[in-house]
């Protein structure tokens, strides 16, 4: 690719400071910037790199104030990170798009495929599957019977979508993800053995959902496990049966959510968080990495940390105490020793 700073600024509705004819042929990280590359600065922790980077053009926030001379051309926008995402999406969409059905693959005669669909080699499309326009099913994916997939959705290699599940439009499901596997349902009998409870529900992914690599979303025992519009799930996440995840919630890697729990809208869940079953999290709940959430959170926009969880203010106050426990114990031992003297 080859663009000028002026052309990029026009695409982003940004303002150029410097050479409008500066040439960009690639992208780079700001700390590794090279001539004729584009980079961005959105986090103030990286401000010092802008004075040494060799990148030709840097996208910055309107609010950025330079403390000394900068050699690169700047493009000022309201939100540098969002602008870069917009630019990369434009680049991605400009790339050649695959269409057609590769062989060998299996597509049931009863399946319905929209226009400009791509089905990769060794993929399996089951009975009564409905696939919308511009959908991409990459090699070795499995799409079970009666599955519905909306327009512009991408299913990467090795994804398994079990029967009766529904996937919305403009979703992305990354390699190795499993949608609709059985929920973990077993009932103990009189012989202290566990008998499997049939899982007859499904999974519903609404529009604009992204599922990370090797993430699992279990089907409901009855009804549906529901991932609402705009939810983003990282890699290696476990979503149990009958869970509901509210709109625009984001969840980081290695989080596990137990059965029948409901997350509200706009929640932010850090990595390795554990969430117990049959509880509710209010809209806007935020949980730091490795938080263990065991009870319902009723107050919106609550920030949690620790295991078992505490509100962030309580956690910080508690941390002041328990980080000093060895010292406090030594003082207590000394007091006990003196009291016995």
TrEMBL record:
Q: Which residues form the active site?
A: 241
In what pathway does it function? Answer: Bacterial outer membrane biogenesis; LPS lipid A biosynthesis
Family annotation (SUPFAM superfamilies): Trimeric LpxA-like enzymes
User: Per the record, what are the reactions this protein catalyses?
Assistant: a UDP-3-O-[(3R)-3-hydroxyacyl]-alpha-D-glucosamine + a (3R)-hydroxyacyl-[ACP] = a UDP-2-N,3-O-bis[(3R)-3-hydroxyacyl]-alpha-D-glucosamine + holo-[ACP] + H(+)
Q: Does the keyword Plastid apply?
A: no
Annotated keywords: Acyltransferase, Lipid A biosynthesis, Lipid biosynthesis, Lipid metabolism, Repeat, Transferase
Q: Report the residue ranges that make up the UDP-3-O-[3-hydroxymyristoyl] glucosamine N-acyltransferase non-repeat region domain in this protein.
A: 23-89
Q: Which InterPro entries match?
A: Hexapep (IPR001451), Hexapep_transf_CS (IPR018357), LpxD (IPR007691), Trimer_LpxA-like_sf (IPR011004), UDP_GlcNAc_AcTrfase_non-rep (IPR020573)
Which CDD domains does this one have? Answer: LbH_LpxD
Its top-level enzyme class, in one word, is transferase
UniProt GO MF annotations:
UDP-3-O-[(3R)-3-hydroxyacyl]-glucosamine N-acyltransferase activity
Q: What is its EC number?
A: 2.3.1.191
Q: Which family does it belong to?
A: Belongs to the transferase hexapeptide repeat family. LpxD subfamily.
PANTHER family, per the entry:
UDP-3-O-ACYLGLUCOSAMINE N-ACYLTRANSFERASE, UDP-3-O-ACYLGLUCOSAMINE N-ACYLTRANSFERASE 1, MITOCHONDRIAL-RELATED
Subunit structure, interactors included: Homotrimer.
Q: Could you tell me what this protein does?
A: Catalyzes the N-acylation of UDP-3-O-acylglucosamine using 3-hydroxyacyl-ACP as the acyl donor. Is involved in the biosynthesis of lipid A, a phosphorylated glycolipid that anchors the lipopolysaccharide to the outer membrane of the cell.
Q: What is this protein called?
A: UDP-3-O-acylglucosamine N-acyltransferase
Q: What is the lineage of its organism?
A: Bacteria, Pseudomonadati, Bacteroidota, Bacteroidia, Marinilabiliales
């Amino acid at each position: 690719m080859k663009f000028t700073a002026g052309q990029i600024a026009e695409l982003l509705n940004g303002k150029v400071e410097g050479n409008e004819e500066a040439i960009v042929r690639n992208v780079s990280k700001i700390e590794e910037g090279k001539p004729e590359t584009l980079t961005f600065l959105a986090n103030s922790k990286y401000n010092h790199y802008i004075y040494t980077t060799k990148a030709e053009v840097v996208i910055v926030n309107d609010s950025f104030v330079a403390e000394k001379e900068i050699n690169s051309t700047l493009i000022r926008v309201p939100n540098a990170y969002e602008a870069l995402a917009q630019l990369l999406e434009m680049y991605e969409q400009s790339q050649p798009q695959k269409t057609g059905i590769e062989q060998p693959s299996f597509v049931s005669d009863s399946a319905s495929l929209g226009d400009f669909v791509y089905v990769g080699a060794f993929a399996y499309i089951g009975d009564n599957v409905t696939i919308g326009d511009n959908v991409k099913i990459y090699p070795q994916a499995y799409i079970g019977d009666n599955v519905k997939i909306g327009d512009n959705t991408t299913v990467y290699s090795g994804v398994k979508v079990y029967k009766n599940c529904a996937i919305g439009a403009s979703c992305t499901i990354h390699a190795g993800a499993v949608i609709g596997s059985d929920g973990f349902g077993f009932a103990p009998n009189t012989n202290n053995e566990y008998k499997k409870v049939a899982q007859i529900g499904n999974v519903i992914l609404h529009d604009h959902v992204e599922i990370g690599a090797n993430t699992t979303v279990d089907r409901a025992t009855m009804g549906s496990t529901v991932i609402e519009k705009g939810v983003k799930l990282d890699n290696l996440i476990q979503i149990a049966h009958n869970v509901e995840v509210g709109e625009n919630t984001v969840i980081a890697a290695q989080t596990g959510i137990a059965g029948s729990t409901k997350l509200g809208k706009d929640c932010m869940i850090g990595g390795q968080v554990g969430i117990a079953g049959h509880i509710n999290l209010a809209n806007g709940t935020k949980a730091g990495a490795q938080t263990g959430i065991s009870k319902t959170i009723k107050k919106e926009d609550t920030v949690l940390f620790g295991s078992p969880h505490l509100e962030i203010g309580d956690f910080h106050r508690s941390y002041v105490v328990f980080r000093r426990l060895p010292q406090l114990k030594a003082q207590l031992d000394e007091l006990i020793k003196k009291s016995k003297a």
